[in-house]
Amino acid sequence: MNIATPDLTKSRIGHTACPHDCPSTCALDVEIGPDGRIGRMRGSADNSYTAGVICAKVARYAERLYHPERLLTPLRRRGEKGSGDWQEIGWDAALDEIAEAFVKAEARHGSEAVWPYFYAGTMGWVQRDSIERLRFAKRYSGYFDTVCVNMAWTGFVMGTGSLHGPDPREMAKSDCVVIWGTNAVVTQVNVMTHAIRARKERGARIVVIDIYDNATMKQADLALVVRPGTDAALACAVMHVAFRDGYADRAYMARYADDPAGLEAHLATRTPEWAAAITGLSVAEIEAFARLVGETKRTYFRLGYGFTRQRNGAAAMHAATSIATVLGSWQHEGGGAFHNNGQAYRLDKSELMGTAMEDPSIRVLDQSQIGRILTGDAEALRHGPPVTAMLIQNTNPVNVMPEQRLVKQGFLRDDLFTAVHEQFMTDTARLADLVLPATMFVEHDDIYRGGGQSHLLFGPKLVEPPATVRTNLFVIEELARRLGVADRPGFGYTEREMIDRILRRSNMGTLADFEANRWIDCQPDFETAHFLNGFAYPDGRFRFSPDWRNGPSPVKPPESLGAMGPYQGLPAFPDHVELIESTDADHPFRLATSPARNFLNSTFTEMPTSRQKEGRPELLISPADAAAHALADGDVVRIGNPRGEVRLHVRLSETVRPGVVIAEGLWPNSSHLDGEGINVLTGADAVAPYGGAAVHDTKVWLRKDAP
């Protein structure tokens, strides 16, 4: 049973789901002691995807829940922005001030001057997405989220027509698992659970493709370290070999693909030699990989996000997905390509989000361009009024968004009112006018969807929160009441009532059923998951030649934005395109901001154990590059580009290619030597065709810092 209140006589096990921005969305078993406090968290052995395994950082979640620096009281800024001078304030007074600030902003510049801003600090639908209902009810500026998934989802769906794929549990039934562009050991450990099972039970080979020799690479039978932004070249060479050596399934393509003859002709010059010059791999490595997947029918391509966070990322994802179609891998259990199951869930969130109230004439602002927006860039503002009031939930833009100097400059504006609803005093909270303390996931009810798997999971309230913290939903409901829209559709429901309404509207039973069963497996049947009934286009055919301007995507921008970035430069067929921020004489290094094992974006950076295990912000650099710049382990180096510069300690590592440098983890800005984080260097220009942030696609110069 789920435990919502403490039993003061004995310990219990409560059941919930991990709320964090990870494709695994693990089902959790939580120890709850006689005092009502949580203990260790474990992966649920009853859930066939989680399979009893979770990451170490979530296992020690009690350290976060009971952290002495957790925010517990609403705070009002008393001194200058960022000074750290706060005074406590009551909840009613704080909410009154937010509502008053929003009313003033609207009176002066119109409703678009208010910009509710959120993201994936919790993946729970009710606590995350209710802010949209307030936005639409009040006609505040729209919000196009672009920082994470746009290139990956668009590239995959341009080929398949839908964001779903073969059951991720089928990895355990594969004869070859290709883990491409995701450090799964660090970011989604359950991928490894099923891949390792295939190796143990079937002798499956594991291939890992990434830009440095990370923790997942060390689990590989074949490890391919490519230059950043060159994955499509590798994919094209693999398909060239498939056509050349007879691995291509021509009968399958004749039935399921749009133009295999055109693709074959296009790939005639995309040889392993051509790809080797681009990717940095040897011809032998490319040939070996192409031969392995060509000869192994049950090859499962597990495609991640990392390799798509380039300015050519959508094209790279499309090219990698195309391999499974050329080989006909989709036909086999344990075969095909998978990225995310987002469109396998047919749930109706319209009432939760208030989409019936959305006004298409209201401008939509790009999440990733918050720095440009808050500093008055006319194009980023869509030539509308300035943003002068914000409510921020579930995200930390002063740390995680690109062009960090602009972001910080914008938040320091005297005429900008900002309220931040948070669990800790983040970089963003430090620059706010009001800071509100938020609950954590075991302290409220919510519903969660697995992106990297197929389960819809219930996350019940397991323990009582501190008396002075409040849920996201509470804040939205109270502001709606103060702003005069609480009578609009979707308002006035508790979390549990809203979850029940979503399930009923989606013909998926009731909350009572959901709570009793703990999750619902939404994996499509085999034929649908493997597109054996046809791909999700009217003609049922995979698109080797997609319509980059008008094609489908779950994250397609509204008509007011249209196609974004240099979409005219995207290829007619799978290909490597030089849309990346290429190195030059002044910026000879490529920087990637890869995930750290003990952090998740800017979450868990407050936990002492996580910080101790990560050490400090460092720059991984190859010994050859270190020697060329007279650098030794522990030296301080300065890296920069036209957006700014950052100082970091150096760590020499054989895992990194010459010409590539890696900064692992989104450390708080204050953890860096000059109080500025790595996103000073990343760019916010929109990525083709439907937006996105190319946070792993950054050119930099490097020099040893003066002693």
TrEMBL record:
InterPro entries in the record: Asp_de-COase-like_dom_sf, MoPterin_dinucl-bd_dom, Mopterin_OxRdtase, Mopterin_OxRdtase_4Fe-4S_dom, Prok_Mopterin_Oxidored, YoaE_C
SUPFAM superfamilies in alphabetical order: ADC-like, Formate dehydrogenase/DMSO reductase, domains 1-3
Residues covered by the 4Fe-4S Mo/W bis-MGD-type domain: 11-69
SMART domains xref list: Molybdop_Fe4S4 (SM00926)
High-level lineage: Bacteria, Pseudomonadati, Pseudomonadota, Alphaproteobacteria, Hyphomicrobiales
Signal peptide (UniProt feature, chain positions): none
Protein name: Anaerobic selenocysteine-containing dehydrogenase
GO molecular function: iron-sulfur cluster binding; metal ion binding; molybdopterin cofactor binding; oxidoreductase activity
Family: Belongs to the prokaryotic molybdopterin-containing oxidoreductase family.
Source organism of this protein record: Gellertiella hungarica
Keyword tags: Iron, Iron-sulfur, Metal-binding
